[in-house]
Amino acid sequence: MAMSRTAGAQRQIAGQLLRAGTSVGANAEEAKASFGRRDFAYRNAVVLREARESKFWLRLIRACGLADPNAVEPLLAEANELVGIYTATVRTAKEPAPQGPPSGEQKRNRATGSSDPDGK
Q1: Which of the four pLDDT bands, split at 50, 70 and 90, describes residue 98?
Q2: What CATH number was assigned to the domain covering residues 3-97?
Q3: Which of 58, 63, 94, 103 sits most deeply, having the most CB atoms within 10 A of its CB?
Q4: Is the CB of residue 52 less than 8 Å from the CB of residue 83?
């Protein structure tokens, strides 16, 4: 897209799209290095927010006819896919963590039907 060569609002919109779009990638990389489930959910929520912002700028560009629709449509489709992926990622990450396998003692108690730790 040649939008950034045009002075004024078009350049500003192109800059906003550039910042939001590159932020998606940078924050996705940061999410990979998160310290736990809550941090992972938070960092991916930032990715989702930036992907939605990118989608907004692309829709604005399309609506105002600021770029060739043939160039914008594939980018908008990609932004829609990213929003879907990160929506699911954040939703899953916010769910309670699955419990690990039961310990040997818990397995024995289930097998015998006993809640007594001594298995009686």
Answers
A1: confident
A2: 1.20.1440.60
A3: 58
A4: yes
Residues 50 and 20: beta-carbon distance below 8 Å: yes
Q: What is the DSSP letter of 103?
A: P
Q: How many CB atoms lie within 10 A of CB 9?
A: 11
Q: What is the pLDDT of residues 39-71, one digit of tens each?
A: 999 999 999 999 999 999 999 999 999 999 999
What would you report as the CA-atom Rg of the chain, rounded to the nearest whole angstrom? 23
Q: Over the range 21-50, which residues count as b (16 or more CB within 10 Å of their CB) and which as e?
A: bebbeebbeebeeeeeeeebbebbbbbbbb
Cα–Cα distances (Å) from 107 to 33, 53, 97, 115, in that order, read 35, 49, 21, 11
Q: Tell me the whole-structure pTM to 2 decimals.
A: 0.75
Domain ranges of the chain: 3-97
Dihedral-angle region of residue 113 (phi above 0 means left; psi in -120 to 50 means alpha; beta otherwise): left
| Strand runs labelled E in the chain | none
Asked whether the predicted pLDDT for residue 115 surpasses 90, the reply is no
